[in-house]
Amino acid sequence: MQKYSVFSLIKNAFKGHKDWEVAWKDPTPKAEYDVVIIGGGGHGLATAYYLAKVHNVTNVAIIEKGWIGGGNVGRNTTIVRSNYMHDENGLFSEFGMDLWRSMSQELNFNVMFSPRGIINLAHSDAQMNVYSRRGNSMKLNGIDAVLLGREEVRKLIPMADFSDNVRFPIFGGLMQPSAGTARHDGVAWGYARQADSMGVDIIQHCEVTGFDVDNGKIKGIQTTRGNIKAKKVGLCVAGSTNILAEMLNMRLPVETHLLQACVSEPIKPILDHVVTFGAGHFYVSQSDKGEMVMGGDLDGYNSYAQRGNLPTLQHVLTEGIAMLPFLSKLKMLRTWGGIMDMSMDGSPIIDKTHIEGLYLNCGWCYGGFKATPASGWTFAHTIAKDRPHKLNEGYSLNRFSTGHLIDEKGLGTKTWIS
Amino acid sequence: MLHIKCPHCGLRSQNEFSYGGDATVKRPELNKEVSDQDWDNFVYLRKSPRGKHLELWQHISGCRQWLKVERDTLTHEIFKTLKANEEI
User: Fold this and answer.
1) Residue A70: CB partners within 8 Å, gap ≥ 6?
2) Residue A410 burial (CB count, 10 A)
3) Model pTM?
4) Partners of A221 in beta bridges
5) What is the ipTM of this complex?
6) Which chain B residue shows the shortest CA-CA distance from A315?
7) Which residues of B touch A255 (CB under 8 A)?
8) For residues A142 and A94, is the Cβ–Cβ distance under 8 A?
9) Has residue A285 got a pLDDT over 70?
């Protein structure tokens, strides 16, 4: 594989950029693979990469019905963080933070990881207490957390609404300084390029239409480009999980919901951090191009539409304007939607299933993008060793029947309620 | 914007309603032995189909009645609206 560097850039510039190798090939599916990963998003691509890199399993195919990176990995608001209270989420995400920090070097692809810090604003004394507790839990798990008072927040986000006459005054906030953003497309492309170079077949425009299961064991998959035999199959399809589960006669603790995001017109640098509104659900950061990248609540009803409705967008942006009044002066550049696999406790599932050789990775709710490296790493381990890693033991499929829920937000089963 | 035809009030816009989830889920009968599997099915497990979905909505900013809506989860087209105690 051609190495990307400033030297290769100069060399190719002299040749008119005509000699660049393709970043990944476009192979026709083979008849059989050791492992087939369904879903060419961030998690699927990362899984294939770590299967090859860490476990030396290279006879692997990624099956993608559209094009790689066309789903949620290209639709999220690019936030990377590990500010969780529960051990399962905190340790898993913090392991991911280490992978994020070295990702550009490891993948030889600039994923533009920008650890600019995330600030969750608090708007009451009670919320400050909750944040203080979460911050302490984070510190116990080795995650950086700083509790900020009102004046400290004012120094960091001076353009927030600190006037006296507001419905939700800013009392302070919880900051994770090591959190930040990354270029989401770059993450997908970086993993794809490296996985391809180690022998993984990335098969795009190939939709799964069925599964071959014999005697409780997976034998292969049926696709629009023919049948493919496989010793092991991993599902990594986020919002399409329920569609595949139906083909397998499985019912899952997951519902598919619609989440919107939007960007404003680009403006000069004004917001240095990722900031979230604590009296509702709104998050914002400024991209390198200067756009304000914003998101918030789900539309709130089951949907596979990948495009949203205006009432939710209006609701979300109302919260944004309450927090950062200058946002009302900006023109909207673009809005879009993606479909989320909302699990019944708000935490993901990375586990084996009752079918031998079939593995499940789903339930990422709002937080799939930042989990990309840790999800790929642990899912690759689960597939290669046929058992979960310690980091994803808690993300079991049967925790809903046994009562070991990881209800980070305390929302109960209706995680779509906003 | 979804437009939902409330059986009591007529056609109203989406922001008058709140969503109540899958309407086909049935709570296990009271005062009877319930298996763990039945309880799982009721509390956690969902089909979440792509296509026709029968779901509960409440006309929270209107007549406050619960209703059933048959809606396509891919196109958002609404086929039928019923009172909560009516069967499709």
Assistant:
1) none
2) 8
3) 0.96
4) A211, A228
5) 0.96
6) B15
7) 21-22, 46, 48
8) yes
9) yes
